[in-house]
Specification:
The chain has 76 residues and is mainly α. It contains six helices and no strands.
Length: 76
């Protein structure tokens, strides 16, 4: 499955897939949905700390959504 191209597509897909995500990945997804403006302001490590997950969890989320890396997810 290809990565969502827009923020709206990303949010819609996350909401659809949320029940099937591992717990920590789902927590990070919920944080990104609830705080989209922070993604462009804070580093991945900072966001992970704010979400209460490890930076690797954000990378797993990015990969699971079809992005090659965190930077690609952040770009949308």
């Amino acid at each position: 499955m290809s990565a969502p191209a827009t923020l709206a597509d990303f949010h819609a897909r996350l909401m659809d897939e949320m029940p099937d995500l591992p717990r920590r990945v789902a927590e990070s997804a919920r944080y990104l949905i609830d705080h989209p403006d922070e993604v462009v302001i804070h580093s991945m490590r900072d966001l992970a700390g704010r979400a209460g997950v490890s930076p690797a969890t954000l990378v797993r989320l990015a990969h699971g959504m079809g992005y090659e890396n965190w930077s690609d997810l952040r770009d949308i």
